[in-house]
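tool_call: predict_structure(chain=1)
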Amino acid sequence: MVARLVIMLAVCLFVLCTNACTGDNVVIGPHNPGPLPTAPSTMSELIASLSDPDYRVRLASIYALRDMGPAAEPAVSALIIVLSDDVSDVRTAAAYALGGIGPAGASAVPALVQVLRSDEYGHARVAAAESLGRIGDTSAVPILAEVLWDQEADMSLHIKVSQAIAWLTGAEFPDCEPGPHGYKLNDEGEPLIVIAAREWWMSEGQYQEWPAIGTDE
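tool_result:
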């Protein structure tokens, strides 16, 4: 029982920290830029600053775009490029910003899938999973399901992938609602949401026809 409580606390803390980068300008990862510069005020300037040599400038502009939500649609192409940035925090922030744009960010799905599959930074993979769920393109479902059995993925990524699958399919998994909260575990310390997502894929999801990546047709 004590071990389960410790695991639940650790998961909650990780998810709270991960969700922090969708709130105030909290920078996660190995970089600590201190106070960020003021972001430009126009869309054209924001887009141009995404290629600024100072990663702090890039971060400030990405946060500004993130806060705009769907209104940041004109920046989708530029944010896709930033998903390949050398700075892990920048890649992570860009992934979250694309998710905030919603369905209008569908052209980013192939790039987000690449981040989910192969980014070396765990927070970036979590951000990509969440954003794939928020964009709403069901072509991402089989790729998200692959990650459920990824031996290199940690619990937080398995949870986020499970949530994204629930959002995209309407499947009712435990603890699949958005936002930071705790996650129920079984006696072996496995999140019930992940167990449910795996069972759903094996019994139902894998037999469905899914659109090609980025098409959702």
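agent: The CA atoms of residues 109 and 214 lie 5 Å apart. Proceeding to next step.
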